[in-house]
Design a protein that fits this description.
There is one protein chain. The chain is an alpha/beta fold and about 325 residues long. The protein contains 8 helices and 17 strands. It has 3 domains: about 5-90, Ubiquitin-like (UB roll) (Roll), CATH 3.10.20.30; about 90-185, Translation factors (Elongation Factor Tu (Ef-tu), domain 3); about 195-315, Nucleotide-binding domain of ferredoxin-NADP reductase (FNR) module (Rossmann fold), CATH 3.40.50. About 20% of the residues lie in helices and about 30% in strands. The strands form 3 sheets. A 6-stranded antiparallel beta sheet has the order 9-8-11-6-7-10. A 6-stranded parallel beta sheet has the order 15-14-13-12-16-17, with helices on both faces. Strands 2-1-5-3-4 form a 5-stranded mixed beta sheet.
Length: about 325
């Protein structure tokens, strides 16, 4: 089996094992998150050896020229010598210009970059804490209308980054960011297609940006947005979405609460957002489908969407199972 050389030590790989999995199996301390080639947290540099095209998919040309690759997607056929990426080439700086609490555990951050960041509404960026931990957060802003990046961040129990952002990061602080990345954004060539959107929690953030871009583009097809949370308080843009649906005849908003419905309006569905969505939609032939939120919801809804006739290349999602080796060791 091929050997990986990292920090003057050699590690044997197993058959069909990625560079990332091989190093983790040998208890090498490197960051990672989605393990699906989406988040780019696990980027490394190859200084000796050949890389397959799948290991560099989605990276910028200059990064590929400098040997950058996605360690989670690289399954070596021959020996490789690798090293940690030069983070100065991966991260840029952004100042916090606004911080506002939607609820007790959901906060809106607005960031300003020194230079213009080119992105599509619905993509995501990575934020790095000083100890090296990295998390991915989707963009709710619309680049053609907003001169800032907007993030909706949920405080996670024992979440290292979310609690740091909530408790320690203040307006005027500077954050290190990476990206943007992701393929979950509005497709302008389908103005007459119906759109199904399903979000849980702050998975709503990227869908807000996509919805705003659809409105700006003059989308003519019906847009059905299902937002779900365990509690009614988790529907943190409830009033704004109700108003948007009133203003635009082709937008439908369905609020869903899976737990006990306390203080909610009669129009709020008591059940999961994905449950109601697939009750209401018998056929998804010709639809664009956007899924953002918990990996369980995304996996379930992707399967159901395909069963109901949606084309695989018209189902867009960027699910994350966030995990960091260093976090596990700290615990």
């Amino acid at each position: 089996m091929p050997t990986i050389t990292f920090q003057n030590k050699s590690y044997k790989t197993k058959k069909h094992e990625s560079v990332l999995d091989a190093l983790l199996r040998h208890e090498v301390d490197i960051p990672y998150a989605c393990k699906a080639g989406v988040c780019h947290v696990c980027v490394m540099v190859c200084d000796d050896g050949e890389l397959d095209l799948s290991a560099v998919e989605g990276l910028r040309d200059i990064q590929i020229e400098n040997g950058y690759f996605l360690s989670c997607q690289c399954i070596p056929e021959h020996g490789l010598s690798v090293k940690n990426a030069d983070e100065s080439g991966l991260f840029s700086r952004a100042k916090v210009i606004a911080k506002e609490a939607f609820t007790e555990d959901v906060c809106r951050f607005r960031l300003k970059t020194a230079t213009q960041l080119y992105y599509r509404a619905g993509q995501f960026i990575n934020i790095k804490k000083s100890n090296g931990q990295i998390r991915s957060y989707s963009l709710a802003s619309l680049p053609t209308q907003d001169d800032f990046l907007e993030l909706h961040i949920k405080r996670m129990r024992n979440g290292q980054l979310s609690n740091w952002l909530f408790d320690d990061v203040q307006v005027e602080d500077v954050l290190e960011i990476q990206g943007p990345y992701g393929d979950c954004f509005y497709q302008p060539g389908h103005l007459d297609s119906d759109i199904l959107m399903i979000a849980t929690g702050t998975g709503l953030a990227p869908l807000i940006g996509i919805l705003r871009e659809a409105v700006e583009a003059g989308h003519r097809g019906k847009i059905s947005l299902y937002h779900g949370d365990r509690d009614f308080s988790g529907l943190y843009l409830h009033e704004e979405l109700k108003s948007l649906a009133i203003e635009h005849h082709n937008i439908e908003y369905f609020p869903c609460v899976s737990g006990e419905v306390v203080g909610a309006e009669e129009s709020v569905f008591n059940g999961r957002a994905s449950e109601l969505a697939f009750i209401n939609h018998d056929s998804l032939i010709g639809h664009l489908v956007y899924l953002c939120g918990s990996p369980e919801m995304v996996d379930y809804s992707r399967t159901k969407s395909l069963d109901k006739g949606a084309e695989a290349n018209k189902v867009y999602a960027d699910p994350f199972v966030t995990k960091d080796l260093r976090l596990g060791r700290e615990r």
